[in-house]
Amino acid sequence: MSDIEAIKDKYLAQVASASDGDALEAIRVAALGKKGEISLLLKTLGQMTPEERQTEGPKINGTRQAVADAIASRKESMEADVLNAQLATEKLDLTLPPLSAPKGSIHPVSQVMDELAEIFADLGFSVETGPEIEDDWHNFTALNIPETHPARAMHDTFYFPQTDENDMPKMLRTHTSPVQIRTMMDVAKRSSGEGEPIHIIAPGRTYRSDSDATHTPMFHQVEGLVIDKGIHMGHLKWTLETFVRAFFERDDITLRLRPSYFPFTEPSAEVDLGFTVEKRKRIIGGDPRSENGGWMEILGSGMVHPNVIANCGLDPEVWQGFAFGCGIDRLAMLKYGMDDLRAFFDGDLRWADHYGFDALDVPTLSGGVGA
Ligand code: DAH
Questions:
Q1: Is it true that the peptide bond before 263 is cis, omega within 30 degrees of 0?
Q2: What is the per-residue burial (b if ≥16 Cβ within 10 Å, else e) of 169-208?
Q3: Is the CB of residue 183 below 6 angstroms from any atom belonging to ligand 1?
Q4: Could you tell me if the CB of 262 is within 6 A of ligand 1?
Q5: Ligand 1 center–CA 115 separation, angstroms
Q6: For 147-175, what is each residue's pLDDT tens digit?
Q7: In 3D, which of 46, 34, 38, 39 has the Cα closest to residue 6?
Q8: Rounded distance, CA 237 to CA 244, Å?
């Protein structure tokens, strides 16, 4: 057997017994690499006589081709073996549930705002909004809180460093009450001072420099305003009672109106919600005068002060009304059982998953058309 035959048999045998891709690659380099044994043999063709080249050339080239083919086919069969082994051990379980796509939820504050809008819409109220950056006139002065009034100090206002074009202070609104002013002024302007009935709620963000378990620098209020002829405290009480019964979904809820003071209402009343205790849990409703029963404050209200009506360009001799302002976050906490307000605005998705509402389950405005 010639040398070249021996070389060919050697490499074909190595290829046949190669255990993996690395071993195969080592054989390829040894035989066919730049300095491989067969490559070097090919280079010797140049020094041969034409006769020698005629007999040796096909042999060496044939050997190169045979080894290259053997490596290629061995590689292919190795790859097939790997795939077959994988197919034999891995199983696809078609009965497993699919991975669910991450899904957002409706924040409890948005949910409660929608509930408010729905309940008050049934009572003939529309929703108004106003800017969160307010001026002195709308946030304080028009609400009968003049510059020197001590009530200003109670609001822990976030003021802007710059004043407005009239050199008056600008601030983040400390309550939703300025929306009352904007609405009445719009009506006065539209009707040239004539006036027309108003039934609005104004939910939205409000700001005060305050922070603990029940206060955050940004929070939410809903303002209510009714202006009409012959409006009295009875209308206020009925409206609030109807609202809390619809909101907390209980007919046995009682309200207590306690005399209070707000510059923008006269008389003013703080409104308390009657609760009882069932299984050591506070339940809104029942007889608040029973053992363990009691009252908790939920909002401020009153008859709109004649000065406020006049400040907006309407005649307080013709138009009267009531107003109220209520914390929305607290309503959400009471209805849905959270105890730390700060968690509302931390943006923790675990909290949102737990307390949020499924967009397709709740039939409210944010909640779409489900159920
Ligand atoms: N603006 C008041 C506050 O933030 C709440 C309030 C009380 C609003 C009485 C009213 C009202 O409209 O009549 O503390």
A1: no
A2: bbbbbbbbbbbbbbbbbebbeeeeeebeebbbbbbbebbb
A3: no
A4: yes
A5: 20
A6: 888 777 777 899 999 998 889 899 999 99
A7: 38
A8: 11
